[in-house]
Amino acid sequence: MTHVSLPLLAVIPNGAIAVCIVLGLLVLGLGAAIIVLLCKKLTSRQELAVADSRAKRKKGNRRLLKSCLKAGFVGLVLLLLYLPILLLAVYSFDKTDMIGRFQGFSFKHYSDLFTNPKVLGMIGNTFLLAFLAATLSTVLGTMGALGMYYCKKRMKTAIHAVSQIPVINAEIVTALALAVTFVAVGLGKSYFTLLIGHMVICTPFVVLSVMPKLKQMDNSLYEAALDLGASPFKALMQVVLPQIIPGVISGFMLAVTLSLDDYIVTVYTRPAGFETISTYVFNATMKGNAHTAVTLSSFWALTTIIFVVIVLFVLISNLAGRRKKEADR
Amino acid sequence: MKLPRFSRKTLCIPYAVFLLFFVIVPMCVILFYAFTDRQMHLSFSNFLRFFSDPTKLSTIVYSIVIALITTVICLLIAYPVALILARSKLKKKFVILMLFVLPMWINFVLRVNAIREFFNLLSQADAMSGLSGANIFKTIVGMVYDFLPFMVLPLYTTMLKIDESLYEASKDLGAGPVTTFFRITLPLSMPGIMSGVTMVFLPSMTNYVVSDMLGNAKVTIIGKFIYEYFGSDWHMGSMVALVLLIVVFVSTLLTGGFKSEENVRGTDL
User: Is the Cβ of B113 closer than 8 Å to some Cβ of chain A?
Assistant: First the structure.
């Protein structure tokens, strides 16, 4: 065995490395907790400056301790949430496919990810499906929510109740029911059935995120548009739609998330030979890494990329929020 | 021919038709298959077979126990987190909340794979091998890990709605923090608890992906039966699905219905 790049790690037994990594990540998390704390401390310090008497300062200290504990707890939960992902991120830069002993730094898994046509196909399938399903669900769901809002009470309650079924139902029951129906009706399984399956789980959530915005909407504006001579369709597109667009956008985002996250419905409604990231990774994990054409490590690289995108997203939205606040001032 | 006049109500027709064909009809098909035999004759044999099979009944109990443990752990972790976030005056609390939701962008199979590799690593450390060797333990940890955001979000949204002045009033009237918690925070966050529990309990009873990947296929939950019957016996599979459907509706009734306002995944991301 060669441990050229990191000879130190080769000397230490595997178990010790594991413990070291866990401890290292713990320190990382504590760092995160401290950052959270600092944000708090800044507000507390202002209070402390005002407090002049000793009693008040004592109270301030206790409050500081309490906020320390709180930030520590939230930080710890977040740390545990991201720990496995961080682990994959570290080993996605390893030369080998094994976790446990870092053999050497390389970008092998990343180049695999972007050159292997099979992997690229799966990623393409997953994202195209998510995009299509989310778009169709958003259109259907927004129309449905609008229609329901103006329907008679009884009709509205009925549609709403049915719309809740896929939300509360166990995913596997929805999936089985759809699959059995498609085959019994003679539709078989095709890309169409897969798309329908995803729409069934996504659309109710679009309706749920559009509905509150409709309730907050100012109804008189629509009436005003009609009085000013707009056709009902035009009034709907130019007056009502702009008012509910935040709900529509968050519904779309939600639908994309749900579709990307889905495994069960995909498995039951997909056409033969169609692979998404989730179906492939599940099979590869169950079979073991050695028996698959594409190693799981490429997907660790993918996980890392998504993780980095998440972090960037949070940072950017944070910065954007701050800039907006400054602009408001 | 004149087109019918455009009315706002007609907009819900496509959605209603969609729901009819892809939600109501499939449920009826399940019901039909559950009570017929292979010759499509009406029969109660599936029903009797299901309820006379001790492994099925014990698996149901087993799934419910696993789901209960998962739900309680999720609640115990998520409640303080949601309360701290909702009540803090922190400017960045939205960012922290996002951090809880964003792992959902990574496909959950990939997330479970990450947990699995994590346990593999832990089992290499000798001291931990006993703990991470237990399949049930790993399954429950995986489920808590996967479903935690579904608990945090509804709790957070309900707690955010609690009027700040209620806490002040409670303090002014001489109530300590414990009394305030049990008389104000807890009762007012009950709707959030209920929808959180529904969103965690059901998937953890049925999501066999987690138990397969983490339990070395030794932990069998009720969802796995559906998967197994899907290949061989649709009628029996439909029966299992029907039983699950009934569990879903009973638990929904017990938790007092599902409020769309407290909806989990439905908060503004």
Answer: yes
